[in-house]
Amino acid sequence: MQTLQGKTAIIVGAGIVGLAHARSLLLRGYQVQVFERHPAAVGASIRNFGMVWPIGQPDGPLYERAMRSRHIWQELCQQAGIWYDAVGSLHAATTALEATVMQELAGLYQHRGVRWLSAAELAAKGAASHRHHCQGALWSPTEMIVEARQAIGQVAGWLQAQGVAFHFGTAVAEAGSGRVVAGGRHYEADLVLICSGADFETIYPQHFAQAPITRCQLQMMRLAAQPAGYHMGPALCGGLSLIHYKSFEAAPSLGALRAHYQQQMPQYLAAGIHVMACQSPTGEITVGDTHEYGLHLTPFDRAEWNQWVLQYLDSFASFPQRAVAQTWNGQYAKLTNGATEWVAEPEPGVWVVNGLGGAGMTLSFGLAEELAAKW
Ligand SMILES: Cc1cc2nc3c(=O)[nH]c(=O)nc-3n(C[C@H](O)[C@H](O)[C@H](O)COP(=O)(O)OP(=O)(O)OC[C@H]3O[C@@H](n4cnc5c(N)ncnc54)[C@H](O)[C@@H]3O)c2cc1C
Fold first, then answer.
1. Residue pLDDT, tens place only, 235-277
2. How many domains does the chain have?
3. What is the pLDDT of residues 36-54, one digit of tens each?
4. Per-residue pLDDT at 125
């Protein structure tokens, strides 16, 4: 890879977007400094499922970006000793219509190794859904899990060991061409990247105010650690996830399924609920989620929404330990115009990279590689 010895970069934000760019610039010979307002990243990147999720991306550039990210995640986890589990994913069908949509998708995504599993094949996978009379499931081999709450700090630690300078607990108050002001001091660099996640008010607030961007708040839970030796197998979703991901829109029967949910469970659609579960290295099960959009969102979680999530989870999965150990919420930046990222240059040499929505863990490393050609 061609290096640019002597070039310098400042990155604002130590979430996955900032870290992915720190990695890609480091590999290209930049001297990189990362500024993070908190003593450690505590934003969307540590609050998520840690699902690296190519199955949610449509064929073409986004799927390729997701697979490139997955490759980088895997390589980085191996290099830095970060836990990951390349478990793949299952979408469990509890109705004939869900089964039809999944069979259509299995046909459309054969080239990805996606397959329809019969109920018997599903049971043979040892999955958490097998006790549930599911009609079958959509299996995909490409999904992997990282433990986000550890992995983000570990990626930062690994980058630091490779020479990236981190300024934790240091908010950037102002940015401009070739410079930032942070903690009352001035810093200079050839390139400034603003990867500030759901903070739209501190740097370039006027640009954020005009951008097609909003926030999405999600409620999440963790079930207590499962008995020693229990492994839930692939990450698991219910049918509602079929209407959540772009890649599934290609199924001819999806419209009928959406209409069915709208009629049968309108409160789930109103709360933006679809239910996913995966297992952490300590045996807990991460479960979510709900979706609420807007610039001003209540900080108060709705217990009722969490109950709906758990009720729906019970319809397609069961776990030996079902007690809820933790609840939390998280916010990500979401574009309102259907775009998958917002990359803008408010001043020469200063770039904002934001708006990856619910797919930042899946797409950031690949996006950072693509954008490196731009700087
Ligand atoms: C509950 C939940 C579940 C999700 N599940 C998944 C999933 O399973 N798979 C997936 O692919 N994606 C998932 N996502 C989406 C993914 O987490 C986000 O797309 C991604 O984390 C966004 O990364 P980011 O770096 O832009 O934001 P953040 O992680 O929020 O990082 C931005 C950072 O910038 C810092 N910052 C902001 N302003 C300043 C400043 N002025 N000075 C210094 N520092 C500043 C903040 O403190 C913060 O640490 C989920 C998101 C949530 C909330």
1. 999 999 999 999 999 999 999 999 999 999 999 999 999 999 9
2. 2
3. 999 999 999 999 999 999 9
4. 79
Q: What is the CATH number of the domain that holds 200?
A: 3.50.50.60
Name the residue with the closest Cα to ligand 1, atom 4: 48
Q: Is there a single domain that holds both residue 343 and residue 219?
A: no
Q: Residue 356 corresponds to which amino acid?
A: L
* Pair 326, 354 in one domain: no
Question: 93 and 129 share a domain?
Answer: yes
Same domain, 249 and 292: yes
Residue 327 lies in a domain: yes
Residues 6+ positions from 33 with CB-CB distance below 8 Å: 8, 9, 10, 11, 164, 165, 166, 167, 187, 189
| Placement of tokens 């990856």 in the chain | 356
Residues 260 and 351 in one domain: no
Name which residue sits closest to atom 19 of ligand 1, judged by CA: 360
124 contacts: CB under 8 Å, gap ≥ 6: none
- pTM, two decimals, is 0.97
Ligand 1 pocket check for 220: Cβ under 6 Å: yes
Which residue, judged by its Cα, is nearest atom 1 of ligand 1?
A: 48
- Element holding 94 (H helix, E strand): none
| Residue 373 φ/ψ, nearest 5 degrees | -70, -20
Counting Cα atoms < 13 Å in the Cβ hemisphere of 170 gives: 19
Enclosing domain of residue 126: 89-141+213-335
The CB of 44 under 6 Å from ligand 1? The reply is yes
**346 and 238 housed in the same domain:** no
Q: What is the DSSP string of 262-315?
A: HHH-HHHHHTT---EEEE-TTS-EEEE---EE-SS--SS--HHHHHHHHHHHHH
Cβ(38) – ligand 1 distance below 6 Å: yes
